[in-house]
Amino acid sequence: MTAPLLTPAELKALVRTIPDFPAEGIQFRDITTLIRHPRGMADSVRHLAAMAKSCGAQKIAGMEARGFIFGAAVAVELGIGFVPVRKPGKLPVETIGIDYALEYGTDRLEVDPSAIGDGENIVIVDDLIATGGTALAAAQLLRTAGAKVAHALFVIDLPDLGGADKLRGADVEVETLMEFEGD
C-alpha cells in the first residue's frame, strides 16, 4: 500500500527559513531541506505534476537553476518533454532570448526555439515566485517561440512581493503548493 502524499502544510514544514540572508531583514526560504527529504521532494513533484496534468501540459519549462530541479522531475513524472530556459550562452544552438529588468540592472533568458511546437501548451514550473520578473520573462519568451503559456506552478509563493499577481496580469494562471507571508 502506498502512503498518501504529504500535504502542502507538511511540505511547508520541511522548508527552512534563514533570517537575514542574503541581507538583513530578508527571510530566506531554503528549499534544500525540502529536496533532501525523500518524500518531500517526491511528493512536491507529484503535487506539481497533478496540477500540470490538469492544465493539459504538453511540455514543462523550467528556469535555470532550481526550475530545472522541479520542472524536469515534473516532466518525467508526466512522461512529457522539458524545455530548459537558460542563462545566456549556455545553449549550443541558435537561440531566441529576452532581456528583463532586475532590481539593479538587467538579465537575459534564452531558449532553443526548435524545442517548442507552435501552439504547444507549455506549463512553467519553478521553486519560488517572488517579484515575478524571471517567470514573466520566461512566459514572454516561450510565447515568442510559439508556445501557449497559460499556467505557471511554483512550490513557494511570497505573495507580499507581488510576482504571482504580475503573472496573472499577463494572463498566466498561478498555482503554488505553499506561501510564506513577509519577505
UniProtKB/TrEMBL annotation:
Pfam families cross-referenced by the UniProt entry: Pribosyltran (PF00156)
Gene3D superfamilies xref list: 3.40.50.2020
Major localization listed first in the record, in broad terms: cytoplasm
Protein localization: Cytoplasm
GO cellular component: cytoplasm
InterPro entries (alphabetical): Ade_phspho_trans, PRTase-like, PRTase_dom, UPRTase/APRTase
Annotated keywords: Cytoplasm, Glycosyltransferase, Purine salvage, Transferase
GO biological process terms held by the UniProt record: adenine salvage; AMP salvage; purine ribonucleoside salvage
An MF annotation (GO) of this entry: adenine phosphoribosyltransferase activity
Annotated Phosphoribosyltransferase domain residues: 59-159
Highest rank taxon of the organism: Bacteria
Catalytic activity, EC: 2.4.2.7
Catalytic activity: AMP + diphosphate = 5-phospho-alpha-D-ribose 1-diphosphate + adenine
Keyword Acetylation found: no
Stored SUPFAM superfamilies: PRTase-like (SSF53271)
The protein's annotated pathway: Purine metabolism; AMP biosynthesis via salvage pathway; AMP from adenine: step 1/1
Signal peptide from the UniProt entry: none
Role description: Catalyzes a salvage reaction resulting in the formation of AMP, that is energically less costly than de novo synthesis.
Family stated for the protein in its record: Belongs to the purine/pyrimidine phosphoribosyltransferase family.
Assembly: Homodimer.
Protein name: Adenine phosphoribosyltransferase
Organism encoding this protein: Erythrobacter insulae
Protein's gene: apt
